[in-house]
Amino acid sequence: MKSVVYITRKIFPEAIDIIGKVAEIKLWESESAIPYGTLLEQVREIDGLLCMLSDKVDAAVLDAAPRLKVVSNYAVGYDNINVAKATEKGIPVGNTPGVLSETTADLAFALRMAAARRIAEADRYTRNGLWKTTANPGLMIGQDVHHSTLGIIGMGRIGAEMARRGKGFQMHVLYHNRNRRQDIERELGVEYVATLPELLSRSDFVSLHVPLTEDTRKLIGAAELAMMKPTAILVNTARGQVVDQKALYQALKSGKIAAAGIDVYEVEPVAADDPLLTLDNVVFAPHIGSASLATRTKMAVMAAENLVAGLQGKKLPNCVNPEVYKWGKG
User: Fold this and answer.
1) Buried b vs exposed e over 137-146: b needs ≥16 C-beta within 10 Å?
2) What is the DSSP string of 157-186?
3) For residues 11 and 51, is the Cβ–Cβ distance under 8 A?
4) Coil, helix or strand at residue 253
5) Interacting residues of 313 by C-beta distance below 8 A, sequence separation 6+
6) Active-site residue among 239, 266, 296, 305?
7) Side-chain half-sphere CA neighbours of 187 within 13 A
8) pTM of the entire structure?
């Protein structure tokens, strides 16, 4: 008898083919996120779950799934999953690391460029027929990216890719990280900054690349925004909860910082009436950091391979709680 798996969103056929060879697939076919109550119901008789970052896989969901052998997250981050509970139940949890680092860094750099050069504003200005003369030296004045100072918070895979892109623009790159990365310093010539206030005060662009933990939740609040230059631009492609969104709105509206580029939000999807959306000095994206065809396909395949390995009792190729293999079921 085939295992039964549940997939919480439509994914690429390459991944469906891998899973379909070993399991019966049940699929949430709506474009919207699966409701929490529906997920609770669906997990009761499944052996594997392939979920999205937006799906809350908490202790209640895990307890409602007595047959569950594996949870595979279609994402690098896994703050949506109660990993401690999964480990307690002997359930390995998979993710998709490495494959999206360059693609996400591309998006972060695009947001930085767009905010600095006011691309979204200029697009609206042109589309709305407001461009009346070419002889206007003050029109859409922005900031140079080249030769400026880039401050990176979090020097993991994506942070390192951001540093590479910054050096390509001849930027002076600073970074603040829990652990000093002397390998990256030697490779790229970046400068380690021991304290967050120093990085914030020195940077023209601040780019966030930290995971969401209790230590990083609201890492950037009103006090931190006040430390930044009034000409500075903040870019967040990490997690929305890393920034105090209300404080960011006030800082942008009052001119405490110049602009922002945002791909992630405290609540997603961001509410249509969120005051942040009323500001012209922000470039918005709908959480598409990894959204290239090649990268999203690779992520789907990795998630499928994690899922299949778990169903077959093998070690997951990418497991966030490898201690589960030592503890065993219990």
Assistant:
1) eeeeebbebe
2) HHHHHHHHHHHHTT-EEEEE-SS--HHHHH
3) no
4) helix
5) 69
6) 239
7) 8
8) 0.89
Q: Dump pLDDT digits (tens) for 124-157.
A: 999 999 998 887 889 999 999 999 999 999 999 9
DSSP output for 282-328 = EEE--S-TT-SHHHHHHHHHHHHHHHHHHHTTPPPSSBS-TTHHHH-
Residue of 102, 185, 198, 268 with catalytic role? 268
Q: DSSP 3-state assignment of 261?
A: strand
Catalytic annotation on 268? Answer: yes
Q: Would you state the structure tokens that stand for residue 41, as one six-digit string?
A: 């119901």
Q: Is 64 exposed, middle or buried (0-12, 13-18, 19+ CB in 10 A)?
A: middle
With contact defined as beta carbons under 8 Å apart, do 117 and 169 qualify? no
The tens digit of pLDDT for each residue in 179-209 reads 999 999 999 999 999 999 999 999 999 999 9
Q: How confident is the model at residue 329 (pLDDT cuts 50, 70, 90)?
A: very low
Q: Strand 172-176 relative to strand 149-153: parallel, antiparallel, unpaired?
A: parallel
Residue 69, token pair as written in the block: 């052998």
pLDDT tens profile 13-55 = 999 999 999 999 999 999 889 999 999 999 999 999 999 999 9
Q: Shortest CA distance to 184 belongs to which of 174, 194, 195, 196?
A: 174
Q: Give the pLDDT confidence of 206-245 residue by residue, as tens digits.
A: 999 999 999 999 999 999 999 999 999 999 999 999 999 9
Whole-number CA gyration radius for the chain: 22
Query: Are 279 and 234 in contact, with CB atoms under 8 Å apart?
Result: no
Q: Which of 9, 181, 287, 296 is catalytic?
A: 287
Which structure tokens are listed for 97? 């690391």
In order of their start, the domains of the chain are: 3-98+293-327 (3.40.50.720), 101-284 (3.40.50.720)
